[in-house]
Write a structure and sequence with these properties.
D-Maltodextrin-Binding Protein, domain 2, 2 domains, six-stranded mixed sheet, five-stranded mixed sheet, 18% strand
Length: 323
């Protein structure tokens, strides 16, 4: 007579085990390394406003100081994903080891990436023989190469000094470099110095530098719902910024450690922020971004940042059905 109760108890325990297991899986924390750049700040805004929790994501942002830092954190396994430009995403793909896929296109740089020099250096052509500081393992060297090429020059015409974002002002002030490749918020502080000025910006190479969010391939396999939910979060933060710009700018400027006015100007004038639909359109029809990745690979190879052949970049992007 007691056997049916035993069976029922076993079934209940099994169901509880299943539900508990599901609950634990849904509570997995996914860590994203984020460096300073206004276009990434919707990820931070989303956390402040509780948008991750609303869609059932447990995301933690790991604040890092530069693009180079985010790459080091990812390759070392300290974060599950990272913010970067397409340049760093391509570099990672060209290397052995831990891999990631682009899951969200955040913005196009449209003047935010700049080369800043002393006032006595009037233009890019005048950099010949000068010392230029930049992050040599990523975006900085690529921007410098593009700027020099537009003036009929090459990297060999300048003296490249490896300098991550936070060292730019120090090296310029000590006159250890003559120019620096940077981006907000640090570039804003530099430009406020009357001794320095901008001699090149990414507005001269429109839609060439796209900022992205990439996530570990393993994490994506284990969390197939993550990408769609992240896009929901992004759109909520995007819509909130459109509807309540002053509140949003105040929150985001605080993390960037710049004034609300400076953040607003950069956010509205120096980048083109992408909605979730625009991001899905880019990732769902990736021919343009794949072509750009191949060009970046070729440029990095020419700059001796990579030894080998540029492979296919078809799997650089997490395919999203935008239909």
């Amino acid at each position: 007579m007691r056997k049916p109760w035993i069976y029922i108890a076993a079934i209940v325990l099994t169901l509880l085990s299943i539900f508990t297991g599901c609950s634990k899986r849904s509570e997995k924390v996914i860590t994203i390394g984020i460096n300073p750049w206004p276009g990434y700040e919707l990820l931070y805004l989303a956390g402040v406003k509780g948008f991750y929790q609303e869609v059932g994501l447990n995301v933690r942002l790991e604040e890092l100081s530069s693009l180079s830092d985010t790459m080091r954190a990812f390759t070392a396994g300290r974060v599950d994903g990272f913010t970067s430009t397409i340049v760093e995403a391509v570099q990672l793909k060209m290397q052995p080891g831990r891999q990631a896929q682009i899951v969200l296109a955040a913005d196009y740089s449209d003047g935010g990436d700049v080369i800043i020099s002393r006032k006595e250096i009037p233009d890019i052509a005048s950099l010949k023989g000068k010392r230029v500081g930049c992050e040599v393992m990523g975006l900085g060297l690529f921007v410098l190469d593009r700027a020099l090429a537009k003036s009929g020059m090459s990297i060999s015409d300048v003296k490249v000094v490896n300098a991550e974002l936070l060292r730019g002002q120090q090296l310029l002030d000590k006159q250890e470099i003559d120019a620096f490749v940077g981006y907000p918020p640090e570039s804003i502080k530099l430009i406020q110095n009357p001794d320095y000025h901008v001699i090149f910006s990414s507005s001269e190479t429109p839609k060439e530098i796209i900022d992205v969010v990439s996530i570990s391939e393993k994490v994506l396999q284990e969390n197939p719902e993550f990408v769609e939910k992240l896009h929901q979060v992004w759109q909520r933060a995007y819509s909130y910024t459109l509807e309540y710009p002053e509140q949003a700018y105040t929150i985001m400027a605080e993390r960037e450690r710049i004034s609300v006015e400076d953040f607003k100007r950069t956010f509205e004038e120096d980048l083109y922020l992408l909605s979730s639909d625009e991001s899905k359109e880019i990732l769902g029809n990736p021919e343009e971004i794949i072509s750009s990745a191949a060009s970046i690979c070729s440029a990095l190879k020419d700059l001796r940042r990579f030894v080998g052949e540029c492979q296919s970049f078809e799997d650089l992007i997490y395919r999203i059905d935008n239909g």
